[in-house]
Design brief:
This protein is mainly alpha-helical. It contains 20 helices and 9 strands. The chain has a 3-stranded antiparallel β-sheet with strand order 4-6-7. The protein has a two-stranded parallel sheet with strand order 1-2. Strands 3-5 form a two-stranded antiparallel ribbon.
């Protein structure tokens, strides 16, 4: 498939497909992009000729903006900008963030508000289509003046100003100069404003945030499926999910969560009354729509923020070619992304917290309505301990997720770059921490899936005399159960549960198989396609106005 770079809004899902590089998406440039870009370039050239004082064009940068750069040095100043910003530290970031950032930067530059030639946008697109990905390090941006240091790596690689930068291409790592030679490209000599236009924006923070948001959307859908399987295993009262209840507290997320739970619990399944000895279940079961609803709305709100930011022109100064004006301003501040990613980490922690409570309920005979302690698969031999170790692993992940939910944005330093950047969005740091939280939650969700399947198998044996947990599920949750069993190579079925004897399997291997599948968005994600579709129909596409923006897999 192809995707056009024209300055028009991209959807979050489109960006994430290009970022993942599978299937390959060919990026093209269409529309009147060339004319728009050339008009802004002409205005910059005119300003330089007239010796106008334009920030970053005929002046120094940041706290040294009082330094005058004459017209003859204006182009060299852009190259030098890339040199003094080459200061990244830490380990390389995930290449899909770099690909997403290059796409976003190309698209916003194509709006014609930044003073770059068509060749700059074309070069970014060429790197994407050739799968040439600069190696960018994890430390170096404070979300003020955008993501200067990370974007300078991309700028150096694509323009070929230095051989120091490294680029992944064809399964190997090359210097920037070598990569250009492999692609049959010549170095580009930057013109006034072009270096600043490439590096001065929030595209990198937005790229990481986009990947975090899309992953969270998928994991939220799987989590809802896991919760449903746990509800079935515990044989809860379904009364709290009825439409009448939520009609009288009509928060959109709560109403949607309750409706989705009703479908997941009942579609294709004969309703059976709860066997619980209590007239009503504990809060973690009875209040699930109210708890999830606030998270669902929060995840949707974060997606809206990220889509708005990633489609925004965020460099400085902005150029109104038609009106002949330069606007020295502050769209580069990453505050929106920083706060959104602080929020998203919190939502991930809350999702895990609730699953943790359900797991604690499942393993305790005092609360689990007749299931074995620690979901022990077999009482003989007596030393079978069930899923005790797996719960310990889950508990080791939980504190990391809730600790990571602490906000970063209010801890900004106030002294960067001669006090010019005396407030900072910290969008890069917040988004990078969120990517770590996403991975931690994938691990926790993998643990939760094993608990859910084991509990269903044991409940099936208690009520039907066999160990096939599918007997308790409807048509919408059966695919998730089956995906888990297939991924772990389990022989679960009528004769035995997922885990019968402790020594019969390696739960670490099971967990890793599930985590890998969640990371790639494969069978586990596809098994909850109905939930994803419903979420998209209800909450996605409000920012771009294009609707249905989510991945339909």
């Amino acid at each position: 498939m192809s995707l056009s770079v024209s300055g028009e809004p991209l959807t979050l899902s489109e960006v994430c497909r290009v970022a993942a590089g599978k299937p390959r998406v060919r990026v093209t440039i269409e529309g009147d992009v060339r004319e728009r870009l050339q008009a802004s370039v002409d205005l910059v050239a005119e300003a330089v000729t007239q010796d106008r004082s334009i920030y970053g064009v005929t002046t120094g940068f940041g706290g040294m903006a009082q330094v005058t750069v004459d017209g003859e040095q204006a182009a060299a100043s852009q190259n030098n900008l890339l040199s003094f910003l080459a200061t990244g530290a830490g380990a390389p970031i995930d290449p899909q963030h770099v690909r997403a950032a290059m796409l976003l930067r190309a698209n916003v530059l194509a709006r014609g508000c930044s003073g770059v030639r068509p060749e700059i946008v074309e070069r970014l697109v060429r790197f994407l289509n050739e799968d040439a990905t600069p190696i960018v390090r994890e430390l170096g941006s404070i979300g003020a003046s955008g993501d200067l240091v990370p974007l300078s790596v991309v700028a150096r690689a694509m323009t070929g100003q230095t051989g120091f930068v490294r680029v992944q291409h064809g399964g190997q790592v090359w210097t920037g100069t070598e990569c250009l030679e492999r692609l049959g490209l010549e170095p580009i000599a930057l013109q006034p404003k072009e270096g600043l236009a490439i590096v001065n924006g929030t595209s990198f923070s937005s790229a990481i945030a986009a990947n975090c948001s899309e992953q969270t959307r998928r994991l939220l859908a799987v989590a809802l499926g896991v919760q449903t399987m746990m509800l079935q295993a515990l044989q809860v009262h379904e009364e709290p999910f009825e439409e009448f209840v939520h009609r009288h507290k009509p928060h959109p997320g709560q109403v949607w969560s309750a409706a989705m739970l009703r479908r997941l619990l009942r579609e294709g399944r004969t309703h059976t009354p709860s066997t619980s000895p209590h007239v009503q279940d504990r809060y973690s079961l009875r209040c699930l729509p109210q708890y999830l609803g606030a998270i669902v709305e929060g995840v949707a709100r974060v997606r809206d923020v990220v889509e708005t930011e990633m489609n925004s022109v965020s460099d400085n100064p902005l150029i109104d070619a038609e009106g002949g004006q330069f606007y020295q301003s502050g769209n580069f501040l990453g505050q929106y992304v920083g706060m959104a990613m602080d929020d998203l980490r919190r939502y991930l922690g809350l999702l895990a917290k609730h699953l943790d409570v359900q797991i604690a309920t499942l393993v305790a005979p005092e609360f689990n309505n007749g299931l074995p302690a620690s979901l022990q698969g077999c009482a003989e031999p007596a030393y079978n301990m069930g899923l005790k170790g797996l719960q310990i692993t889950g508990n080791s992940i939980m504190p990391l997720l809730t600790w990571a939910a602490n906000p970063l944005v209010e801890h900004f330093p106030t002294h960067a770059e001669q006090f010019n950047q005396n407030i900072n969005g910290l969008s890069w740091g917040s988004a990078s921490l969120c990517w770590r939280s996403v991975d931690l939650f994938r691990h926790y969700l993998s643990v939760s899936l094993l608990f859910a399947v084991q509990a269903l198998d044991l409940r099936a044996h208690a009520v039907a005399g066999h160990y096939d947990g599918r007997a308790l599920l409807g048509t919408l949750t059966t695919p998730l159960y089956e995906a888990v069993c297939q991924l772990v190579g389990s022989t679960t079925g009528p004769q035995r549960p997922l885990v019968k004897h402790d020594a019969d399997q390696w739960l670490e291997e099971y967990q890793q198989a599930l985590h890998g599948d969640l990371s790639d968005g494969q069978s586990l994600v596809r098994s909850v396609a109905t939930v994803l579709q419903s979420f998209d129909d209800e909450f996605v596409g409000r920012t771009t106005g294009r609707g249905g923006a989510g991945d339909r897999r």
